[in-house]
Predict the structure.
Amino acid sequence: MTEKPSRLGSRIDFGRDGKQCDYLQLPHSVHRSAYGWLPVPLVCIKNGDGPTVLLTSGVHGDEYEGQVTLSRLIREIEVADVKGRIIILPMANYPAAKAGLRTSPIDDLNLNRVFPGDADGSPTLMLAHYMESVLMPLADYALDLHSGGSSLMYLPTVILRAAVMSDAVQKEVVELGRVFGAPYGFFFPPGQGGGATNMATAARHGIVPIGTEMGGSGAVTPECLRYCESGVRRVLRHIGVWNGAVGSDEQPAVETRMLSADSWESFSYASEDGLFEPVVELGDEVEKGQLAARIHSPETPWRAPAEVHFDAAGLVVCKRLPGRTERGDCLFHLGADFDI
């Protein structure tokens, strides 16, 4: 499908020096606008030769720390401080980001599960196709900024594996993760997302990709935002694509504790519909078999709550937020210490 030309248009010339701020025009013909398009913000900042870095956020529209980070960077970065090219897509799934939803309200698709997309598909598929066929071939490095969104809360974490990648690329990813300087680094089980994620696509193109899970809760979390902004700046300086001054508000880098989930046993799920009562918190160390949560059923209050137990040991990296839950919802995931 990626051999087809994208139907998205833009007035940005990726080969021209300077700072260009405009929109991708995502075709969207509806009752109120027969020949309309959706405005997906896109920025290209180029100055001479050097590496190209692709920065994305808003792949999930209810994840805000990355969108704030990249919006601030767009205003801050001056062309004279750039050596190479920085391409920024702060609301990658624009319809979802506009609505504050994880998935697009137009086609109900999750952009981070549909790569390589489809040039002639629905809006989310067209966006994935454009990112894969137009933007990624330009890039040497990719930073994809996520958080827990409306349903989850994460410790400030940099994601160092969400795809199968070569040993050489994995080594560089870990180096960039340490430069990012978040408290935690996390390695998802290989193949997370079925290989159809943004990071997996970047790795498939030979790009060096890192991601984040910074906070969540359907809000902007100040601590995680500071780590996110400061980490992105450090990575850009390390790559050599930007030499902007260190701001007085930058969060100092900390030593990153490396954690991994080698299997899906590190993820705990609701066994019943009902009300989720957590019995552990983010940052707790837990043991295999330990009680994780109770699921209450107010509809049948005479029934004892169902108990959920951890299937692995580790640190609680992520926790569900909404109290109402359904069978199959992720409640927690853990990370075990990982030497690399």
In short: Residues 222-239 form the longest helix (18 residues). The chain has a mean pLDDT of 95. The radius of gyration is 20 Å. Residues 265-337 form a domain with the OB fold (Dihydrolipoamide Acetyltransferase, E2P) fold (CATH 2.40.50.100).
